[in-house]
Design a protein that fits this description.
Strand content: under 5%
Number of helices: 5
Shape: flat
Largest sheet: none
Number of strands: 0
Radius of gyration: 26 Å
Structural class: mainly alpha
Distance between the termini: 80 Å
Order of helices and strands: HHHHH
Length: 160
């Protein structure tokens, strides 16, 4: 075994899984926090410029407009429903692909992996949809109150 084959073996056996299992999650977290810090720095710079220029802008209103609005309960529930539908679609497509490969290839394909992953995705999607339905029934009154508050805020903005 020469040096090149030995280095390739070490790369395949140790470094590649390490890079995927450690490097990838660390880089994703780093990118997320970096973008969050850039947003915060941009907002602070805008507020600092408004204060330095002694403009007649109300700083409290500026801060309220620059800060992201929190998602309300209805948006969170619809997001859960959408995620559930996407997971069900992904799961069914994986199951269909695996069944198609089993049907298409006579003896050479040993299937089952995509059926396992597909069924896991589909069951997670079904669980999210069930949680949406149950949450909608339990939070019916809170959703009505939230809708009324949003309508009142919209009317107040139109009048102002």
């Amino acid at each position: 075994m020469n040096v090149a084959e030995m280095l390739a073996s070490i790369f395949e056996d140790a470094l590649l899984p390490f890079a995927i299992c450690v490097g990838l999650p660390v880089s994703i977290v780093w990118l997320f926090f970096r973008s969050h810090m850039n947003e915060t720095n941009r907002r602070s710079e805008l507020i600092k410029l408004a204060i330095e220029n002694n403009s007649q802008v109300d700083i409290t209103k500026l801060v309220e407009q620059l800060n992201p609005q929190p998602r309300n309960l209805k948006q969170k529930m619809v997001s859960s429903l959408l995620t559930g539908c996407i997971l069900i679609g992904l799961g069914l497509s994986l199951i269909g692909y695996d069944l198609w490969m089993i049907y298409r290839v006579d003896n050479g394909y040993i299937g089952g992996d995509y059926i396992l992953y597909g069924s896991a995705c589909a069951f997670m999607g079904i669980a999210l949809i069930i949680a949406f339905v149950i949450g909608k029934k339990m939070m019916k009154r809170e959703l009505e109150i939230e809708t009324e508050e949003a309508e009142m805020k919209a009317k107040a903005k139109l009048e102002a």
